[in-house]
Amino acid sequence: MKLLLTGAAGFIGFHTAQILLNRGDEVVGLDNLNDYYDVSLKEARLAQLKKFPNFRFVKMDVADREGVAALFKQEKFQRTIHLAAQAGVRYSIQNPLAYIDSNVVGFANILEGCRHNGVEHLVYASTSSVYGANTKMPFSVHQNVDHPLSFYAATKKANELMAHTYAHLYNLPVTGLRFFTVYGPWGRPDMALFLFTKNILADKPIDVFNYGNHRRDFTFVDDIAQGVVRAMDRPAQPNSEWNGDTPDPGTSQAPYRLYNIGNNAPVELMKYIECIETNLGKKAQKNLLPLQAGDVPDTFADVSDLVREVGYKPATPVEEGVRRFIEWYVGYYGK
């Protein structure tokens, strides 16, 4: 297939592109290469992708309305995977307007491109952060999620609502994927595993929020990427049993689906840190701090819909995933 993959130089986009390219799909990768984190890391990921003859890179911001419209018109993509976004809970507290530009305006441009050019299926990234103030575990796509705790989460919830509207009005099949705490090789430098590893190796203390009492459904990036591709291969279908008297948030009478992609096995933050220490052969100096604004104490993904409808379940244990990240980190940075 000929695909548009936005956020191709990003962490998840890079791994997703590799799966698609290895199986023979033609991938046009779009990314603006912004400086939210180290651009050289994004360029290094891109250098790996450019080794594939069936990959082409387009440097563009999804907020560029005319540019995105022209790209869709010219390329006539069969399917689109939209992973480009301004990420990060903390940064959304400092700079919320960046999230409007990328996550709301940018997503609207992608929806319009799909609508006007006969795209068969749009798969887009949402986040476990949309569960916000919800406390019933495990988190299910069939729960109401109207209480986000960060502006990042609010923009991703907005994406889900925008996608539903396009599915309803224009019969555009759309699938939203709520990712749960992704980690692994080529990861983002602003995420915990990267920060912890870097500081432990440098004999600097690590900041451990909520006094280490977090539980996270850490999900290995290869599992996430495989889930994205599997979902893309299965265009969303209407739910004929959907009832407006008891509306199910995870499905619709329109071709609209939401899935969690998580490991379905929450891990205590302190155990996660122990895995890092074991693989580095060094103990961490811990700076215990209170819960950060916008954060949630625990995440736990119900992936039963993903297993039943997409035929996939993430399964990489955290011990294996952390080992593979540290192998990459030491090799890449020569530490």
Question: Could you characterize the architecture of this molecule?
Answer:
- This protein has 335 residues and is of the alpha/beta class.
- It is 41% helix and 16% strand.
- The protein contains eleven helices and 13 strands.
- It has a seven-stranded parallel β-sheet, with helices on both faces. A two-stranded parallel sheet has the order 7-10. Strands 8-13 form a two-stranded parallel sheet.
- β1, α1 and β2 form a beta-alpha-beta unit.
- α1 runs parallel beside α2, α1 crosses α8 and α7 packs across α9.
- It is globular, with a radius of gyration of 19 Å.
- The termini are far apart.
List keywords for this structure.
single chain; 335 residues; alpha/beta; 7-stranded parallel beta sheet; two-stranded parallel ribbon; 11 helices; 41% helix; 16% strand; globular
